[in-house]
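Q: Hi! Curious about what Phospholipid-transporting ATPase looks like structurally. Here's the sequence.
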Amino acid sequence: MVRSSSLNGDSSASHRRTPSRTVTLGHIQPQAPSCRTVYCNDRDSNMPVRFKGNSISTTKYNVFTFLPKGLFEQFRRIANIYFLGISCLSLTPISPVSPITNVAPLSMVLLVSLIKEAFEDWKRFQNDMSINNSTVEILQGQQWVPIPWRKLQVGDIVKIKQDAFFPADILFLSSTNPDGICYVETANLDGETNLKIRKALERTWDYLVPEKASEFKGEIQCEQPNNSLYTFTGNLVVQKQTLPLSPDQLLLRGCSLRNTEYIVGAVVFTGHETKVMMNAMNAPSKRSTLEKKLDKLIITIFCVLLTMCLIGAIGCSIVTDREDLYLGLQKSDWEYHNRLAIGFFTFFTLITLFSSIIPISLYVSIEMIKFIQSTQFINRDLNMYHAETNTPALARTSNLNEELGQVEYIFSDKTGTLTRNLMEFFKCSIGGISYGCGVTEIERGIAQRNGLKVHEEERSTGAIREKGFNFDDPRLMRGAWRNEPDPDLCKELFRCLAICHTVLPEGDESPEKIVYQAASPDEAALVTAAKNFGFFFYRRTPTTVYVRESHVEKMGKIQDVAYEILNVLEFNSTRKRQSVVCRYPDGRLVLYCKGADNVIFERLADGMDDVRKVTREHLEHFGSSGLRTLCLAYRDLDPETYNSWNEKFIQAKSALRDREKKLDEVFACNLINNDMKQFIISSETDAIREAEERGDQVEIARVIKEEVKKELRKSLEEAQLYMHTVAGPKLALVIDGKCLMYALDPSLRVTLLSLSLNCTSVVCCRVSPLQKAQVTSLVRKGAKKITLSIGDGANDVSMIQAAHVGIGISGMEGMQAVMASDFAIAQFRFLTDLLLVHGRWSYLRICKVVMYFFYKNLTFTLTQFWFTFRTGFSGQRFYDDWFQSLYNVFFTALPVIVLGLFEKDVSASLSKRYPELYREGIRNSFFKWRVVAVWATSAVYQSLVCYLFVTTSSFGAINSSGKIFGLWDVSTLVFTCLVIAVNVRILLMSNSITRWHYITVGGSILAWLVFAFVYCGITTSRDRNENVYFVIYVLMSTFYFYFTLLLIPAVSLLGDFIYQWVERWFYPYDYQIVQEIHRHESDASKADHLEIENELTPQEARSYAISQLPRELSKHTGFAFDSPGYESFFASQLGVYAPQKAWDVARRASMRSRPKVPKK
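A: Let's find out. The predicted structure is below.
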C-alpha cells in the first residue's frame, strides 16, 4: 500500500507541473542518485554508467604525490624546518661556515627518510598487486573463464569455489547445496570463524551451470554503495517479476566460501565501493607521544640557541665599539657606528655557527633504530610466534615502537579477541553434581598471586583430549555415567548436546575422521563433547538428526538412532537460548533447550529450588575460574500441547519482521572479577520499558537520556565515595550500546569519562564500530593518556585507528583488522611480550638515544660558545667545517645506534615477572625535564673541562719545533678529547654491553684518527683545510697530546660516574632494584615459589614473606654499583606491606658484600 501511494502521488499537483521527458538509450535509464541499477551479464549496458573497477590501492603515495607528500611529511618535524632555514642562511655572506656543512647532512637525512617511506609503501603496493592479480572465474558466452580480480566489472556473473574469497560484493544466485544455501566465513569482517548461512532466491536456483547461467538477464535495483556491513536493500527484476533482496542474498568481499562446492553470483559492488573497503578508512598518520615531546625539547634547545646568539650579539656590539685597530675597522665604515647593525649581523652569524646544537642526524638515527627493532626484534621474536598457524608478530609501522612502552588504557574487543574463538568443553554440573577435574589458567594465576600451591589431579588413564574437548572425569567417561545417582539425567544432557544445534558433519561417518562445521565455536565444542560421551552425531538431513549412541540400554551396546527435528528456534540476543523440538523413533516428543542461565532458570519447573541453588553455585565457581557458562534443560511434550504451540509458532514466525537486539549484561559481567563493585547502566529498566510500550520515539529518547543521566551521576558519586576510602573495592562499569549512545552526548560525556577513569574495568555491550571509536577517542583526548586498541575484525577497525596504538589479531580470525593496525599478533596472550618486553625496551632505548644526542651536541656546541668569549664574539669558528659536519653523521653515529638496538636493563623474563617495571614508561620516568636538566648539566661540565683544560694548558705547550700551539692545534686537540669522551660515555650509560658496543666505540674513535691523518695530510686550492694542514702530525709528535687524551676524557666523565653512583645508591629506579635482586641469576627466571600453604595465618604468611626478602648486598657482577636495602619494593611485588626503615641506608652503607663460596 505504501509503495502504491508513493508512486501515484498527488494528481492535482502533477497537472500543474511542466511535463518531463525521459530519454531512453536502448533499455538504459539514467541512474537515480539514491538507487543503483545493475544489468546482470550485460557489460555493454553497464558501460555508460562507468562503475568503479575492482582494483584496490592501500598505498600512501603514487608516482606523482610521492615527492611533494613525502617532503611534507618530513617537514612536519620542527628540526627539519630548522635545518632548512640554517641551510639557507649558510648560503649568505654572513655565514662563517661553508654551505656544505649544513646542506649535505640535511640532504642525506631527507634522502634516507624518503627511501624508508618508499620502501614501506612499496610493500603495500606489492600486497595490493597480489590481491588484484588473484583469479576468479566469470561467465563469457557459455563457459567459465579465469580473469584477475582487477578486471572484474559490475554485472559480471562469477563462479566462486569452495574455500575461495569473494572478490567483490556479489548477489547470491545459486549453489550446489540443496535449498540454494551456502556457508560463509566472515572472519575478515567481524573476526569470527563461525559460519553464516546465506540463501539464494528460489527463482534463481537453476542458474548453476554455464549453459543455464548464460540465459540470466536480470536487473538489480539496489542502494548506493555504503559502509553498512549488515544491511542491504534492493530488488531483483527477472522476466518482469520483482523479487525483494535482503542481506541473506549478499556475499561480501573478503569473506570466504565454506562447505559448498561452488556458487554462482552477480557482481553488485566492486573495488573501493564494496562494503568492506568503504569501512576501511584511510590510515591516519600517527606520531608517537615521545616524538611530540621531542618537538618540545627541540623548541627548548632552539630557545637556548637564541639566548646564546643574543649574548654573543650583545657582546659583539660592546666589544666592536672600542677602537681596536686589529679589527681592521675604519671610521668611515657604516657598521662601525651602528651597534644595532653589528648585533643584528652577528646574531645570524652565530646561529649558523651554533647550528649543530640541534642534532640533524637525530631523526634519521631514530628511524633506523625503530626500523631494525621492528623487522629484526619484534617480527622475529619466537615468544610471539604462533606455530599452529605459522604466524609471527608483525610490526606494520616502525614509528610507534616506544609508544608500546607507555600504554595506560587498553581497549579490547571482547569475545573473539579474548577467547581466540576457540572453545573447549571443560566442566559440567548435572543434577547438582559437579564434574571435571581440570584447573584453568585463571585458577592457577589466582593461586600464584595468593602464594598458594596448586594441586592438580593427574589425568585418568585413557583420558581423551582433542580440539574442543578438554574434559576428564572417570565418573562420566566410557559409559561410567550409568553408575551415577541419576543416569537418566546424564543421558538427557548428552542427547541435548548431540541434538540441540545446527552443526553440519563433514567427512567419513567415524568419530576419528568426522569434521564438524559449526555456526559458532561453542556449538562445535558441545557436539564434540557429546561424541566423547558416547552420543556421536554423524549425519543430518533437513528434517532428521542421526546419533550413534553407546551404553544406553546396556554397557557396550551401540545403536544408531534417528531423531526427527520438528522445530528449530535459533539463538538470538532477545531469546538468549536455542531450542529444538524433536520426535523420538517411538513417538516421544521432547523439547531440548540451551542458553543463558538467567533465561533457563526462570523457566524451570516448580520443586527444583535445591538443584537450582546448587547449580547456581557451580556456575559462579565456573565463571570465576574463567569458563564460559551455558545451561541446558529439557521437557517432555504431549502431542496436544505441541500441536497447539506449533500453530502459534507458525503464526508468530510469519509475522516476524525485525529482530530487536537486546543486551546481555549478565554474560558481559563474566569478564569482571567477582570482587569488583559493578555499576550497570542498562536500557532494560521499568521506566524505559513503559516508554517503549507507548511507542513514541521522542518520548523513548527523552526517557533513556534522563535515566542514563541519573544513573551516571549516581554511579559517579558512589565511585568517588569509594575512592576516598582506604581499602575500597575495585570498581567496574557495564553499559549497553543504547545507553552509551546517550552517554556520549556532549552534555554527559564528561561524566561518563570521569566515571570510567575511576573504574578498573569498563565493559561496553553490543556497541557499534563507531561507538567503539568514540569511546576510545573520548579517553584519548579527555584523559590525555596513551591508549591501545586490540581487535580481530572489520568492526574493530575504527577503534584500532582511533587509539594511539592499534593491534590487530591475525591468524584464524582474518586480516581486516590487521590491515588497519600498527602491530599484528596471532593471539591476545602475545600482548604481554609486545608491551612488557618490546614496548618497555623500546621506550627505554629511544629515551636514552634522544638524551644522548642532546648531550653530545650540546657539549660540542658549548665548546664553540666558550671560544666566542675569547674572540670578542666575532663569530670566529673554533672547528674546521668538515669536523663540524662529520661529528654527528660519522664520528659519533654508530655507538648510539648500537645503544638503541641492544640496550636492555633487565631480561625479558624479569620484565614479565615484574610488571610493575612497566609503570616507569607510564610515568615517563626517562624523558622528564629533570632528566633533561641532568644531561644538560653534564654537557656544560664536560664542555668546560674539555675547553678550559686544553686551552689553559696549551698556553705553555710547544710542538717539536719549539713553536707554541696555534688555534687549529688547540681546536683539533679539543675535538679529539670530545670524540673520545662522548663515545666512552655510551659504555657508562649502558646496562648491557655487547661486543658491538666495543666495536662501534673503538671504531668511531679510530675513524676520527684515520680521517684526521688523511684530511690533515692533503690540501687543494679549492678546499678550506689549509688551516689544519699537518696539524695532527704536529700534535702526535708531542707527549702533551697523549697525556691530554688520557686525562681530559677521564676528568670529564668523572662527574657522570659520581652522579650515577649516588643515584643508584640512594635514589634508584625500579629496574635497578630488580638488577640487584637478580644479579647472581642467569637470564632465565627462577621458578616461582609457591610453598606457602593454607595453614599459615595472615601474620605468619607476612612474616615468612618478609623473611624471604634479600638481606645482603651481592657481589658486583656487571652492574655499575651496589645498592642499599629495598624491602619496600620487594614487598610490594609480593603483595606484602613492609615499610621503609629510616636506618636502612646507613646500615647498608656500612656493610660489605661477601661473595658466597660454593660448596665443593
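A: A fun detail: The longest strand covers residues 558-569.
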